[in-house]
Records
---
Amino acid sequence: MDRNSVNWWGPIPAIVTPFDDRGAIDENLLKQNIDILMAKGATGIVIGGCTGEFWAMSMDERRTLFRLGVKAMAGRGFVIAGTGAIGVHDTIALTRAAHDAGCDGGLVLPPYFVKLTDDEIFAHYEAVSRGVDGPVMLYNIPGNAVNALSPALVRRLADLDRIVAVKESSGDWNNYYATAIAVQDRLRVFCGPSSVFGVPAVQAGADGVIDCFPNMWAPGCLDLFYAARDGRLDDARRLQEIGVRLTTLFTTGGRTLYPATKAAMDMMGLPGGRLRPPLQPLAGEPLAGLRRGLVELGLLAGESAAARSSVAA
């Protein structure tokens, strides 16, 4: 397998997993969110990734989520499932379960928490590649996983049979670009932090973008891909600026990305659902500051006509 074995492309939101008041996966809200995103220009979804709070779910819940995502998508686009785990046997089992559920591929980050050498990371992916039948997307997110997939390591991993793509979410442009140069002839390359540098990534040939912000900023974060691809440079620059400002807003002032995403969805009447502990809902000044920031960006009631026009573009 290689990049030509799949047809994944475009803006693919990393969707939230909505939980209800009892802490269970809310199937209805999950479907509502997928319906909204597909209607606004998404080409597929990543389900059960970092944004989807996979680390707060049991193995059985993750398998259930894969089935619910495929059911809700109903063939309208790609479903790529987050199947990473610390242990190789769990990773293989989850990736097989995702493929069996009808997902188009598994998104596999390296084993997390314990610091590994490149050879140990390679051995993990080598075992996964041997143990599954469907395509796998590498996931580089060292800020969460501890272990990084360097451009040189991704080049080695591209030789493995089931590896067809990479989601590069290091947040480092130089690392992203070096990875793209190293493997884009063999792997599909997706820019993770498209809110930060998605436009130059697409202009440099990225196959697509995968980001959490479409959950609460669509079609803006989706059109960021299309504007960059189609050469609408003024639109692309404006959308990239909003994305950078959103990133700062969601990660400062006592806020972190995933609680802020669901809080923003709740403010906007979008189907984000509840968080899973250890995450806690925003309150007090962090919540108030988020609301002020969204109003200033024109994403909540009270925005000016000029701001509305900027976001809609």
Note: The chain has a mean pLDDT of 96.
---
Amino acid sequence: MMDIIDFKQSIIDKRLPDGLPLHLQSLWHDGTGNWKIAHDLIDQLTDKQSAHIHAYLHRKEGDIWNADYWYNRAGRTRPQVSLVEEWEMLVSEYSK
């Protein structure tokens, strides 16, 4: 997979990497500022990774109740870090 530096560079270059898994596509679109596409990609998925990213997106949106629902579905708790730090943690975790 790609490391966080290359992932961020692909956002700067506005080039979605080929073959990027759906979870990372969602985070990539969020990184470009397109929350709606990021959410639409992950919204109907039911696996724990999707729930985790879904939780982050709702936290970013400011809908904390909904975010906490999705963190619970992912088997996680809302992290006490900035949104930027959480995004980086998600990219690192799901790009392994």
Note: The helical segments are 4-12, 22-31, 35-42, 48-61, 64-73, 83-94.
